[in-house]
Write a structure and sequence with these properties.
- This protein is of the alpha/beta class.
- It has helices at residues 4-13, 29-39, 80-92, 107-115, 126-132; strands at residues 16-20, 43-47, 55-56, 59-60, 73-76, 97-100, 119-121.
- β6 (97-100), α4 (107-115) and β7 form a beta-alpha-beta unit.
Length: 135
Amino acid sequence: MPGDAEIRDILTSVKTIALVGWSPKPDRPSHRVAAFLKARGYRVIPVNPGQAGQVALGETVVASLAEAGPVDMVDIFRRSEEAGAVADEAVALGAKVVWMQLGVVDEAAAERARAAGVQVVMDRCPAIEIPRLGL
C-alpha cells in the first residue's frame, strides 16, 4: 500500500477525477465524496450509466469511463469483484492513478495496473485522506 508521501503526491498532482459509481442520492458516500472533491477544486466527472446525460457537479454524467475523456485518476465506488474491470479500463485509457474506495480491494487488478506504470490506492477514501494529510 502506498504511504502518506505517495498519497499526498497523488492528491496534490491529479486535477481530473472520474468517479465510477457516482450516485445522485445525497446520502450515498459516492455522492458526498464527489461533492467534497469538487469543493476542493478537482474536476469530478460522474460515471453512472443509469444517470447518463444529467448534469451534476458542473459536468454531464457519463455512462462509461471511456466517455469521461482523459482523466488523471479513476475513483472506484464499485464492489471489489467489479473493480478489476474498471481498473483495467482506467489503465487502457491512460489514467495515472486507480483509487479503490474503502472496502474495495482487488490485488490482481492492482498488480496489473502497477505493471503498466499506474499508481494504485486501495481501501482508502480521498475525502478522509485529504483532511488527514492536511491538504
